[in-house]
From TrEMBL, chain A:
Pfam families: ABC_tran. Its main location: membrane. InterPro entries: AAA+_ATPase (IPR003593), ABC_carbohydrate_import_ATPase (IPR050107), ABC_transporter-like_ATP-bd (IPR003439), ABC_transporter-like_CS (IPR017871), P-loop_NTPase (IPR027417). This is Nucleoside ABC transporter ATP-binding protein. One of its GO terms (molecular function) is ATP binding. Keywords: ATP-binding, Cell membrane, Membrane, Nucleotide-binding, Repeat, Sugar transport, Translocase, Transport. The keyword Transferase does not apply. GO terms for cellular component: plasma membrane. It comes from Tranquillimonas alkanivorans.
From TrEMBL, chain B:
Keywords: Cell membrane, Membrane, Transmembrane, Transmembrane helix. It is a multi-pass membrane protein. It is found in: Cell membrane. It holds the Pfam family BPD_transp_2. It comes from Tranquillimonas alkanivorans. This is Nucleoside ABC transporter membrane protein. Its main location: membrane. The keyword Transferase does not apply. One of its GO terms (cellular component) is plasma membrane. InterPro entries: ABC_transp_permease (IPR001851). Coiled coil: none annotated.
């Protein structure tokens, strides 16, 4: 820390939930105008910590000082009055309302809509975040929605801006532009607390970092002086295992999509438009793209939850577009959706029942409509054992597992059914680093055994690590796939749909 | 400070204990209610819960218990399957009425032929009548996405209107001196659903209710259909992913509950009630909703809840005649039962913590 001035100081903050200490004696401070990173794995206690700063959660012990004075926000309202603003990872916007109305809803005393629209235009131009106040939020891209949230905060002229995983919904170009905005803010004296687990971003943006592991501060450092690997190992507390793969011979075409168009079942979803691609046996196809560009719809169209024209989806030459999920499973096309609880698995059902959920057909867990509980249980036990799922036993409910363990169960359940083609959406979202590495390795092993694997993900590092070829979804269209090796970040960004006109704004503002 | 804390898994202990706790709380609150009405609470509770089974006139009441419980159980079993899948058939009362009308009409059509086939045909007609009446909300839901709660409920009133028309018109007893109501099926041997064993109250409806309990138990525990029903109720999206066709499930659940309600109506009209009359229905279809929830939507639970509910009916009537308790007090008492059950139900998924949020 340079200088003695502190905007916000945390001293010995402790917060416990039943069975887990989310934050244990956390102390650090943020100087005005600094971009300070808060780094840690899922479950390290980052969210709890920022919730305490933002007045959503009260600490059990410890205190906070804002500009030297005791700071005890009881509600986010108190926090905002003290000059602390926050942009959440999950947006709290009403899709049916327009931008200005959404901004007004978050304000204590909103001015008239016309004045507010003018203010929104001014702020968006000043910080290079173009936004039309009259557009309906439902029509905006994820990146644009984030701008609504950011502008809502900036209108309050905050001294400290908390950003929770802001880049997970952005293309690389949009990330660059966001960083320019954040740097401009920090030059003007606004401190930024930047929460992420993306190390390269933090090294590019932040001047200081606090690393949390299991609720404790394990290091304070300047991220620019550390390598990404060093930071990761501080986060995880162990040396990381990088997945390895052997290159495999090109197999026959296992899955072919031609002119696949499917309307989204969600009114604000993205319809798939003329998606064509083929995947060979033994190959991993990575599908990138900003969230909300048709990922869920692509998975549904492949799993059979959404039906399409028969010829639009071909499995080993056979038309399957009109078949439902179980008919496709029978033929060897398996899928693992993004949402673990409530889609890939039923939260209140036991793991045995969840094994039955997709395994009934291929694992022969049903005879004449009657369930073979013994077989289902042993299948669940095999998944638990082979994929190192931490649970006392298969009779426990899916929701009692941590996110990472349930994800291992879900992926393992599909992989152990020996698919011909496996489609996974966000296989490592919210999963700790070692579990993520295990899942990626399992996907690579599956491909090495001759299955075709489609990995839909928003984690570009993950896709570059395991894909043979890479394609990007942009507004429901799939770019032609390109070999993943040698692709630059710029090229990937362009495939993902560029920056949604943001450069222009920045040049205009500069 | 009292706080509620979500359990990581539903507690199996509390799942079993909550109905008992609800009954105890109902007895306490009911006792206070009866005391406020100027009755001796202990005697009132004993009159309702104890005397019908163990009292002086138990030989009469015990048979009545099964007669009352059978339709409740039969209907509640059907409803529980739909409720588990998140398909809300609130109109069992209407399906019950239509089943009774269809079954009775078939029986009356054969009058006075004494053929063995008459009663089986009536049973089939009763089931089909209830099934078809339930198909109206089912098809409207699957084709036009209407709300089955509203459609099935409103069809109850249509069914009541049809019942009145039938009792006054097409099914009226031609030898009944112009009084509304059909011929008494109890007096028509081929169509009568009489006690199978003297003095027990067991008629064909009781047998059907027991079969339904076993059927539902096996379906839910061991059959893929039951698994899909439970899955759809818990996570509709996961159910689609598992290959469940939601429309098929709506047809199945509404159809089955309609058919069972229709059967209950048929057994009632050919047995205890005896005839189609304007006031034939006594809200078994609505009370069965309480029975289904009181029994935790579980077949065995419903069996016990149906018996308990029948007991409050019979005991309530006894209390009305011997203690002079008003009928409304008995209804309030039955309502309390559902109220307390839903309230303590919270403890299955949450635990109560006293004191401040502590450091674990």
């Amino acid at each position: 820390m340079t200088g003695t001035e502190k905007l916000l100081a945390l001293e010995g903050l402790t917060k416990a939930y039943p069975g887990v200490v989310a934050n244990d004696d956390v102390s650090f401070s943020i100087a005005p105008g600094r971009v300070h990173a808060l780094l840690g794995e899922n479950g390290a206690g980052k969210s709890t910590l920022v919730k305490m700063i933002y007045g959503l959660v009260r600490p059990d012990r410890g205190r906070m000082l804002l500009r030297g004075a005791p700071y005890e926000p009881h509600t986010p309202h108190d926090a905002r009055n003290a000059g602390v603003a926050m942009v959440f990872q999950h947006f709290s916007l009403f899709e049916a309302l327009d931008v200005a109305e959404n901004v007004a809803l978050g304000m204590e005393n909103p001015p008239s809509q016309r004045q507010l629209s003018r203010r929104i235009r001014e702020v968006s131009e000043e910080y290079g975040l173009p936004l039309d106040p009259t557009r309906r939020v439902g029509e905006l891209s994820a990146g644009e929605r984030q701008r609504v949230e950011i502008i809502r905060c900036l209108l309050q002229d905050p001294k400290l801006l908390i950003m929770d995983e802001p880049t997970s919904v952005l293309t690389p170009q949009e990330v660059d532009i966001l960083f320019e905005t954040l740097r401009k803010l920090s030059e003007e004296g606004t401190a930024i607390l930047y929460i992420s687990h993306k190390l390269e971003e933090i090294r590019a943006l932040c001047e200081s970092a606090t690393i949390l592991r299991l609720g404790k501060v394990v290091a304070n450092c300047d991220p620019r002086e550390k390598s990404a690997r060093e930071l990761a190992e501080l986060m995880v507390g162990q040396t990381l295992h990088t997945p390895t793969r052997e290159s495999t011979a090109e197999g026959d075409v296992a899955l072919e999509l031609s002119g696949l168009s499917v309307a989204s079942s969600n009114p604000f979803g993205t319809s798939l438009k003329d998606v064509s691609v083929s995947v060979r046996a033994g190959e991993v196809l990575g599908v990138g793209g900003v969230a909300g560009n048709g990922q869920d719809e692509l998975l549904a169209a492949l799993s059979g939850e959404c039906l399409a024209a028969p010829d639009a989806v071909k499995l080993k030459g056979r038309s399957v577009g009109q078949l439902g999920p179980n008919a496709r499973r029978r033929l060897g096309l398996l899928a693992a959706p993004e949402e673990r609880l409530g889609h890939a698995a039923a939260p209140d059902m036991s793991l045995t029942e969840n094994a039955l959920l997709t395994g009934a057909i291929r694992e022969n867990l049903v005879s004449n409509g009657f369930l073979k509980w013994g077989s289902a249980r042993s299948f669940a036990e095999i998944v638990i054992e082979r994929f190192d799922v931490r649970t006392p036993g298969p009779e426990h409910a899916a929701r009692s597992l941590s996110g990472g363990n349930l994800q291992k169960f879900v992926i393992g359940r599909e992989i152990l059914q020996r698919p011909e083609v496996l489609v996974v959406n966000q296989p490592t979202w919210g999963v700790d680093a070692s579990a993520a590495a295990a899942i990626r390795q399992a996907l690579l092993d599956l491909a090495a055994e001759g299955a075709a694997v489609i990995v839909i993900s928003q984690d570009l590092d993950e896709l570059m690590e395991i894909s043979d070829r890479f394609a990007a979804l942009n507004e429901g269209r799939l770019s032609p796939p390109r070999p993943a090796k040698g692709l630059t970040v710029d090229e990937i960004g362009l495939m993902m749909g560029g920056a949604h006109d943001m450069e222009v704004a920045h040049h205009g503002a500069a | 400070m009292i706080r509620l804390e979500k359990r990581p898994e539903p507690s199996s202990l509390w799942t079993a204990v909550t109905p008992v706790l609800a009954v105890v709380l109902t007895m306490i609150a009911g006792g206070i209610l009866f005391a406020a009405l100027g009755n001796e609470p202990v005697i009132a509770i004993r009159t309702i819960f104890w005397d019908p089974i163990f009292g002086e006139f138990a030989f009469y009441y015990r048979g009545q218990l099964l007669v009352k419980a059978a339709p409740l159980i039969l209907i509640a079993i059907g409803l529980s399957l739909g409720f588990r899948a998140g398909i809300w058939n609130i109109g069992a009362e209407g399906q019950y009425i239509i089943g009774a009308i269809c079954g009775a009409a078939v029986g009356l059509a054969f009058y006075p032929a004494n053929l063995w086939i008459v009663f089986p045909l009536m049973v089939i007609a009763g089931a089909i009548g209830g099934f078809l009446w339930a198909m109206i909300p089912a098809i409207l839901k699957t084709r036009f996405n209407t709300n089955e709660i509203l459609v099935s409920l409103l069809l109850v009133y249509v069914a009541e209107a049809i019942l009145a028309w039938m009792a006054l018109g097409p099914l009226r007893n031609p030898e009944g001196a112009g009084f509304p109501g059909s011929r008494n099926l109890r007096q028509y041997e081929a169509a009568a659903n009489l006690e199978l064993i003297e003095g027990t109250g067991i008629h064909w409806g009781v047998i059907a209710a027991l079969i339904a309990v076993i059927f539902a138990y096996v379906l839910l525990k061991r059959h893929m259909m039951g698994f899909h029903i439970r899955l759809t109720g818990q996570s509709p999206r996961a159910a689609r992913f598992a290959g469940v066709n939601p429309n098929m499930l709506v047809i199945f659940c509404l159809g089955l509950s309609g058919a069972l309600a229709g059967l209950a109506g048929l057994f009632e009209v050919s047995g205890p009630a005896g005839q189609i009359s304007i006031d034939f229905n006594v809200f078994y279809g609505f009370t069965a909703i309480i029975v289904a929830f009181l029994g935790r939507l579980h077949p065995i639970g419903i069996l016990l809840a149906g018996l308990l509910m029948a007991l409050t009916y019979i005991g309530g009537e006894a209390a009305q005649s011997t203690l002079g308790l008003p009928a409304a007090a008995i209804q309030a008492f039955q309502g309390m039962l559902l109220f307390f059950l839903l309230a303590v139900d919270l403890l299955t998924n949450y635990r109560v913590r006293l004191g401040r949020e502590g450091v674990a």
